[in-house]
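Moderator note: this is an archived Q&A kept for reference. The question asked for a predicted structure of one protein chain; the sequence and the answer are reproduced below.
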Amino acid sequence: MLLTDPPYGMAFQSNWSKSGKRHKKIIGDEKVNGDFLSECYRVAGESAVVYLFSDWKNSHDWMIEIERRGFKIRSQVIWDRLHHGMGDLKGAHSPRHDVIWMATKGRPTFTGKRPSSVIYSKRPSPSEDFGHPTCKPVDLMEQLISPWPSMSILDPFLGSGSTGVAACNLGRKFIGIEIDENYFNIAKNRIEMAVSDGGL
């Protein structure tokens, strides 16, 4: 499984943090870049699942990138964050969701009941996000992993490590990659703690 939250390609910089200062900009967030998907397709097994997070504004660009690299789009999943974001306070709806593209290589199947295309999970607050502007909740990642048979999980944009923690909690093998040394160390510590608490 490829389960990842890549830079969306929107030059995002959050104003929210515990200290009141802005989070630093995300590396590589200047434009949509799906080059990594070609390598993911190459190393994926004959039956692989992809979950890729995206912003609504450029979700179509990501859909094209996913399919251009060989994967087949199967579903659009909506993450309801249960908390609205910022943006235009007078002329646009209050943003409360992210888009997740679900795609496959081959034809993997669920182990049990087919999951809903809407997932509810509270976005981490500034005091819970480990200093990362787009930290994902562990239970959200577990909801994406758990319907599938046991497989290795790859996250090439590890960030603060939520995917790795979820994989450990569910007893799955995990590979994570992160370019930012500070976030890498945060993720490493979180994953090691999950392992010591009884994960894989």
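Archived answer notes: Residues 110 and 148 are 5 Å apart (CA to CA).
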